Amino acid sequence: MPDHHRMTTLIHLPPIGSLLRQAGRPLLESTLVPLALFWVLFTQAGFDAGLLAALAWSAVAIGRRVVLRRKIPAILVISTLLLLARTVVGFCTGSAFLYFLQPTVQNFVFALALLVTLGFERPLLAKLADDFCAFPDTLTDHPHMKRFFKRVSLLWAIVFLVNGATTLAVLATQTVGNYLMVSTAGSYSLVGLGIVASLWWFHRSMRGQGIRLRIGLPSPVRVG
C-alpha cells in the first residue's frame, strides 16, 4: 500500500526571472558575445581582428571578476582557455576552417569528459550547473540529486556528440558566414531541447523521491 504519510521535502528556488538571468548571463558572456564580436570584426577588419576581438572580450570578462573579487564561472574559464588555443591556431595557420574546427571537436571532448567524470562524487555536469542555477545545499547534497546528475550526464554526452557531428558536416560544406548562422541556430536548438528534457527529467525524478520544487517562494520548509 502507498505511504500517504511519507514526508515531502519542499525546496524553494529563486523566481523564474532570476533563474533565467543567472542561466543566460554565463552563456551570453562566454559564447554568444565572443562569437558576435568575431563576426563583426571579421567582416569589417579581417580574420586576425576577429580573433583578437573574441579573445579580448573573454580576457576582460575574467579580468573584471578578478579585480572585483567575484567568482569566475567554470564555463567562462573553460571557454576562455579553449578560445585561447583556437586563437593561437588561427594566428599560426590563418585558417578559418581550423579555427572553427576546434569548437566542433570540443563537442566530442566535452562528451568524453562527461562520461569520464561519472565516477566522481560530483561529475562535471553538476559543477557546470552551479554557474546556471545555484541550487540550495539542501538539494545539492541530496543523494538522489547526485545520482540524477550522473544519469543526466549520459543525455548531455549524446547532445554533444550529435552537435559535434552535425556542426562538422556544416563546416565541411558551407562558407564561414553560413556556418556561423546554421551551426549557431542548430546548436542552440539542440541544447534547448536538451535543457527541456533535463528539466522534465529533473522534476519527475525529484518528485519520485518526495521532493517538491517551488519557484519564487521563501526559504525551505518541511511539510508532512
Automatic annotation (TrEMBL):
Does Transmembrane helix show up as a keyword for this record?
yes
The membrane spanning regions, by residue number, are 36-62, 74-98, 104-120, 154-173, 179-202
What are the UniProt keywords, alphabetically?
Answer: Membrane, Transmembrane, Transmembrane helix
| Keyword Transmembrane assigned | yes
State the protein's name: Intracellular septation protein A
Q: What is the lineage of its organism?
A: Bacteria, Bacillati, Actinomycetota, Actinomycetes, Pseudonocardiales
